[in-house]
Amino acid sequence: MTAFLLVINFIIEGILILAFINLSARTKKTEELELKQQKVASEIEDLFTSYLMEIKEENERMTDLLRSKEREPHASNNSSPPVDSSSEHWSTIKSPVEEQKDYVPPAPDSTDESYQPTLQSQVLLLKDQGLSNDQIAKRLNRGKTEIELVIKFKQKNSGYDLNERF
User: Fold this and answer.
1) Which of 156, 132, 154 is CA-nearest to residue 144?
2) Which candidate among 26, 36, 78, 158 keeps its CA 20 to 30 Å from the CA of 10?
3) How many angstroms separate the Cα of 154 from the Cα of each of 113, 125, 136, 149?
4) Contact 70, 83 (CB under 8 A)
């Protein structure tokens, strides 16, 4: 009986030792993962810091540029007015709604541009008219394989079969 209890005791102790080893391995993996996350976080923080510094430098250059333009006399009427930080200047700026009221869309050019449908639309139009792939390829002066690919892409993207309508 004592021998039986000793064997059971050794088995239980072996299981406990394996459990401790497994637990220590998991904690080690967790610590390694934590270190990696800290490294990534510090890299991201450094990246954001560098971006912020670049933005700050760019803002300072822009401020210096605007200040230098304020000091320059305006020789022509085509140049933009000096930047004025007073409240009078800001009150004269139109709101986007006021700008939209004054907006006149540009007139279309009177050039002779004709509409040219894409290859895909031409192929699909001819296919809808009931032409075969060979006939479409001859009419559009393209390869049969190219026409088949256009039709297959349309079938795949639209989810319907062009041939089932006929």
Assistant:
1) 132
2) 26
3) 28, 12, 15, 9
4) yes
Say what the pTM is: 0.33
Tokens 């210096």 belong to residue: 64
Q: What are the residues whose beta carbons fall under 8 Å from the beta carbon of 151, sequence distance 6 or more?
A: 123, 124, 127, 133, 162
Please count the other Cβ atoms lying within 10 Å of the Cβ belonging to residue 97: 7
Q: What is the pLDDT of residues 124-137, one digit of tens each?
A: 999 999 999 999 99
3-state secondary structure of 83: coil
Q: At residue 166, what is the residue type?
A: F
C-alpha to C-alpha distance for 36 and 54, rounded to whole angstroms: 27
Single out the residue of 110, 106, 138 nearest to residue 123, CA to CA: 138
Q: Kindly report, residue by residue over 69-104, the tens digit of the pLDDT.
A: 888 765 444 555 555 555 555 555 655 655 566 777
Q: How far apart are CA 43 and CA 7, in angstroms?
A: 54
